[in-house]
Amino acid sequence: MTQPAEHINDRRGAAASRRGRAGLHAETRVEGDGDASGRAAWALDLRALGRRVLDVLLPPHCLKCGTIVAEPGSLCPSCWQAISFLGAPTCDACGLPFEFEVGPATLCAACLRHRPVFARARAVLVYDDASRDLILGFKHADRTEAAPAFGRWLARAGGELVETADLIVPVPLHWTRFVTRRYNQAALLGRALARETTLPLVPDLLIRRRRTPSQGGLDFAGRARNVRGAFRLNPRLAGGVRGRRVLLVDDVYTTGATVSACARVLLRGGAAQVDVLTLARVVRPAH
Ligand SMILES: [Zn+2]
Ligand SMILES: [Zn+2]
Questions:
Q1: CATH fit for domain 73-281, picks 1.10.10.10, 3.40.50.2300, 3.40.50.2020, 2.60.40.1930
Q2: Ligand 1: centre distance to CA 84 (Å)
Q3: So where are the chain's domains?
């Protein structure tokens, strides 16, 4: 497992110039040229100035522990060391990390037995004791200021997937949870990734049609039952999925049951391919 430094501080992310993609109701912003570049430079200067002023007033804090750090949207050295970033070699399908180098397109034992419906899943970091606070803080404690950093990390870790994707779709949250939690963290991650890559984001392509009981403590089969029939395509946008390669975004990959249910709906709706990118991934020993 590697912990590349660019995960932390690269503000540009991967593939910054993916313009002109045909999207649905895309939220992506396409940078202009000519006059607009002058204005953009101004805006950047002002933003940098604004950040310097803010840094003096509110120095940037480590995304996980709150220690003061040099760069906004970064981790302090000890949190950075504790977190396990994921990278090659992994199972080509589910993204499970391997201990040793393997040939291209190698699958783990579970995927050899039962190939997932999505093509590839990748994640930024391991979901473990070290990363739990970071993820749960984002999920429940309104620490949404981490979203831009997470967007950069997703763009890095999901570079291969971003390259071949046509659009980004977040896993939807049922509206009753949306009310209690106030925002959908998968949608926030999707939006942050869209900003890094300029891929179009279609936040409401998938709809959760019923509230699913908590997935806690369930295995893949239990979770799969739990989410069966839980998702459908938004009828208003369903036509736009045909032939598209969809990058599905969620916060944590646990057993893959939720993203599999979403992928199945997208593929049934005519998507050419579905890949999955998550911020974190549960990695069980002896998979
Ligand atoms: Zn820290
Ligand atoms: Zn696998």
A1: 3.40.50.2020
A2: 14
A3: 73-281
